[in-house]
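Sample 1 of the test manifest.
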Amino acid sequence: MSASRTARERVRAELIHEITETARRHLATDGATGLSLRAVARELGMVSSAIYRYFPSRDDLLTALITDGYNAVGEVVERADAECRPGDHGARWLAVCRAIREWAVAHPHEYALIYGSPVPGYEAPQDTVPAALRDTIVFARIVTEAHEAGELDPPAGLPPAPASIEADLARGRAAVTMNVPDDVAARALMAWAGLYGTVSFELFGQFETVVENRIGYFDHTVTTLGRLIGFRF
Amino acid sequence: MSASRTARERVRAELIHEITETARRHLATDGATGLSLRAVARELGMVSSAIYRYFPSRDDLLTALITDGYNAVGEVVERADAECRPGDHGARWLAVCRAIREWAVAHPHEYALIYGSPVPGYEAPQDTVPAALRDTIVFARIVTEAHEAGELDPPAGLPPAPASIEADLARGRAAVTMNVPDDVAARALMAWAGLYGTVSFELFGQFETVVENRIGYFDHTVTTLGRLIGFRF
DNA sequence: ATTCGTCAAGAGCAGCGCTCTCGAAACAGT
DNA sequence: ACTGTTTCGAGAGCGCTGCTCTTGACGAAT
């Protein structure tokens, strides 16, 4: 615990940071499949085997990038929410949705890495979970606060949440501390999946040659999804 | 154009079929990134360079698998729709949604290949488009017929489609021959994205440790999305 | 019977992830 | 200040990948 020991650990931390930073740049240009340990090492002026002192495998490097990606979108979402008037829940929902889409459009390969198809043998390490929940927690807070303020006013005629998914909804609410009735929680979960489904469709080319006014269509979609939850606009 | 020439062409077509078939099996077990030309060749008892007589590159093989995947889900959807009573549009929507999910769960890697993040330098070849539209056309037909039968009864209080996306909706309707008003088309497009967003969330692990009753949650979701379009259940 | 197109095979290139060994440097304890 | 230990980068090397090029054999058409 002496100063000298922390000196070595500090240069180690710095090198880890440099590696992930370089890897993230490569990821942004070449995508996850094109990320090469050797190329990263080459750019850093070291030999490929040296990387293994810091990341035991290529997948571990990818895991680090995944965690960073979740944190990046989480931070963007948190800031977008913070910039809104707390009482205007509809505006907060809209701001959060737009922030996610804008980050995804700006970082398509990172988005694909965390919300696309799992890359290798797809065993998501458990330590990515907290970072993965950051955006969801913001979202849950908006819904909870809107509900507690009595501002949620969903359209009539939608089916109620069936009893068979009560346990799931309870588990989901507990994970993100969302204190709302089952019906609200179910619709919130749906809107959440719909939001990411829309972003993924746009980024992964499913809207190609169809939707051109991406922002206009996206805004209309998330407004409708927001109405589904019960936000007023 | 003699018989002998077609004989040669026939063995060629058979070999192409064998290659794609073997490749699909490898894809199903190892995923797209694990698909190796050399492994396919090895299993077929030929040398790797021989494959290049039939597929000019690995990406071309993947493209063939993508087209096959689109056709597979298209066929499943068409059959699911055909087995319903034509007048029961809500049941048809539900059947189509369930068919898509079941196919995706049964063929996760193929689903990831066509609806997940684009694999390489992601330039979707234009000749996959017709196959990609097969399921969408079925879906559009259900919506159109329900609308023409006056059976669509969407919840009140949802925002109307803004004028800014009129052109996009017109283009989308033309692509799949869906003759309905803008509001209906917009909501149908949203439900469509929401459906695939839900399936992707389940397959790509976003529901991990949260939703366990996958079928129950999925049914509730697509029922709600169906209500959004205006189907009655 | 000869010509010509098609094909499988083999060698080979550059790149990849990953492992192992080795010598140098930085650390810790005396 | 001198040990012994740990940490680290470099290098060689293994087996794999996609892909190219050349060679020789076979079959169909002239």
